[in-house]
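Subject: design request, 281 residues
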């Protein structure tokens, strides 16, 4: 099962603390050793780092700690390949331009039967179902809206597309244009919103702690979203299966929760991921 990590906040923030735990799942504390990627929005631009080597031992991943890049929207992904060979072209997150701005996307799961149309503008470069799903979503959005819609219109459109695509398999994803971060749970996704009064957090995957009160201001608000919780002493909230959430400025601004929400245990979620992985091999 691939792993997703996202951050959305109201002021540029570095993701080093969360990423240090996350990257260990790429070859030390877990078996996701088929590459990694991370994208940072900075103004209208994106810094994008990819490696087809295990994240836990990647010198490119070391750059995240060394540079401590600050951003209001970040998406990271460590890969356990189910479709497509191990290569840079198949490494998430993927990026495309739409309505004069960059869009960043990463997916965890397995989707089948995503067909390109003759008039599509966006096409996959690699061979993953994930990139095909991203291109499909952007092509559909481009057809629906000649110019950038407002947040509510965008959320409703993404919700419809998520409902359609999840019928084709397992669809956990993160999508951002640098203003907001949309997250959809097909199985497992957790989030935490850190705000004043800040406290200390201790990582699950590493012997590392940080006192956020010492490195933040009272006005800061930071949402961190991950496939599985990253810290041991904080309360993480779980997204329901098939729930879509939009984060902006470190808070939830739109939410589509199923009428009868269902929450998977870690064991249930991982069993589903293994079943889809076996089907793809």
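Subject: RE: design request

Done. Sequence follows.
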């Amino acid at each position: 099962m691939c792993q997703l990590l996202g951050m959305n906040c109201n002021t540029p923030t570095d993701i080093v603390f969360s990423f240090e735990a996350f990257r260990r799942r790429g070859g030390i504390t877990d078996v996701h050793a088929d590459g990694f990627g991370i994208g940072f929005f900075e103004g209208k631009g994106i810094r994008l780092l990819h490696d087809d080597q295990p994240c836990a031992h990647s010198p490119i991943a070391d750059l995240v700690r060394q540079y401590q890049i600050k951003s209001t929207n970040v998406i990271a992904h460590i890969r356990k390949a189910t479709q497509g060979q191990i290569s840079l072209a198949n490494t998430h997150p993927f990026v495309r331009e739409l309505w004069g701005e960059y869009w960043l996307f990463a997916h965890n799961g397995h989707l089948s039967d995503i067909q390109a149309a003759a008039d599509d503008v966006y096409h996959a470069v690699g061979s993953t179902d994930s990139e095909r799903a991203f291109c499909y979503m952007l092509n559909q959005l481009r057809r629906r809206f000649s110019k950038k819609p407002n947040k509510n219109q965008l959320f409703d459109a993404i919700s419809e597309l998520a409902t359609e695509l999840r019928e084709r398999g397992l669809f956990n994803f993160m999508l951002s244009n640098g203003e907001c971060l949309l997250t959809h749970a097909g199985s497992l996704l957790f989030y935490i919103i850190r705000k004043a009064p800040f406290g200390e957090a201790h990582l699950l995957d590493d012997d590392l702690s940080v006192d956020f009160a010492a490195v933040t201001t009272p006005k800061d608000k930071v949402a961190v979203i991950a496939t599985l919780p990253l810290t041991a002493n904080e309360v993480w909230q779980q997204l329901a299966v098939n729930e879509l959430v939009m984060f902006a400025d470190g808070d939830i601004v739109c939410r589509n929760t199923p009428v009868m929400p269902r929450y998977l245990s870690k064991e249930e979620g991982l069993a589903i991921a293994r079943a889809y992985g076996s089907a793809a091999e």
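DSSP finds five helices and 15 strands in the chain.
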